[in-house]
Amino acid sequence: MESISFPEGFVWGAATAAFQIEGATTADGRTASIWDTFCKIPGAVVGGDTGDPAADHYYRVDEDVQLMVDLGLHAYRFSTAWPRIRPDAGPVNQAGLDFYSRLVDKLLENNITPWLTLYHWDLPQTLEDEGGWANRDTAYRFAEYAESVVGALGDRVENWTTLNEPWCSSLLSYAAGVHAPGRQEPEAAVAAVHHLLLAHGLATAAIRDQAPNAKVGITLNMYPIIPANPDDPGDLDAARRLDGLQNRIFLDPLFKGEYPADIVEDLEPYGFSKHIRENDLEIISAPLDQLGVNYYAEHFVSNTPEPEAASSDSGVVDNGRRPTGSPWVGAEHVSFPSRGLPRTAMDWEVQPDGLFKVLKRVHEDYPSIPLYVTENGAAYVDSINDDGSINDPERLGYIESHLRAAHAAIEAGVDLRGYFAWSLMDNFEWAEGYAKRFGIVHVDYETQVRTPKMSAMWYSQVARGNALAATVAP
Questions:
Q1: Is there a catalytic annotation at residue 375?
Q2: CA–CA distance, 112 with 223 (Å, rounded to integer)
Q3: Which domains, from first to last, does the chain contain?
């Protein structure tokens, strides 16, 4: 493969999320999130794992920032924890804000640009007790939280992301029950879709009110939806429905100020339209400065139910744990036949061309907006050598192939300005607990020792050189 260079100023970073790395779930005034509660449900998380101590980042900020410096990262994408900053969704907890203020200062001292995500799934449990994202009031409480964070950090943080992957926070969490709060209520899930988008719009206004020069965006997990048989009307309709639920139900209101008519019709039996009030879509579609794209795999779909199909392709864990449902409201029968492609440890297909397709589609179908790949990476089983070094050639190859797909998109005219590897370090992988490792840096959970893997050393070279070499490092 040929050597390729990325545009001047291309941002090279890595990403994490608060609940996945911080630990310290009761320290300095932090109260319970829906994930703290969910982890206590028997069978909800592999091994009964919890978010404490995770990667102990709360107490190891200096060490972790130095790790980023050593890797030559330009930027660090992290999230703030709502229950740390406004415990129980109540008054501001200064100790919580101070933690993130120290992190931001440390990043800036080392010429690393902070990319702050306000919501990466850790809703205060008190708000879930009042209905969670199915309750419209949660959107307004989120705007209050956003105002608190930007008031404290807006003088130093330029790049703001309101929500990470609202598909997961709504359909995977309230319909499938795979993620916290673990509800399996389709009506609540479609309400959550709209209320999350409303929360985004309200938070966007709050950010711009206090930090007029801020760059505001949202991060969506987007996937090409491929019909198994393009000549089968049933498979085509399955692909249409899933594309609507995965992609268009978020992209269209954000960038067109309307929901896709076919999906509104599909969701009418679940009361979707009743949640949309006057001026909501105007609030949701406020102009954005950038869009984050999270990409992991394509969805290859069939209209024919196949109980033995790889259900993890739909985001539903199927390994004998607590029973879960389908996130595809109104299309629960859709199946995901195997194409025989290589798969990661998460049982997700490896399909780098899908990243090219997603980036090109957004560029062509929606208003021109700067794009950043805000998550891309893979879980694999690492090999620890006798000398303590860690080989992960599959992860390195995964990232390398997706970077080439990203570069192809740039050459095709896509305004892609940066890439964040998921994730900086091994961490609590949601319903998979500590059983799956996405990090380019290994974490020994017994000692909390961090060890850059082969992929991290390679990625460091890429970031420093702003280019991919002709051949993959051995």
A1: yes
A2: 30
A3: 4-466 (3.20.20.80)
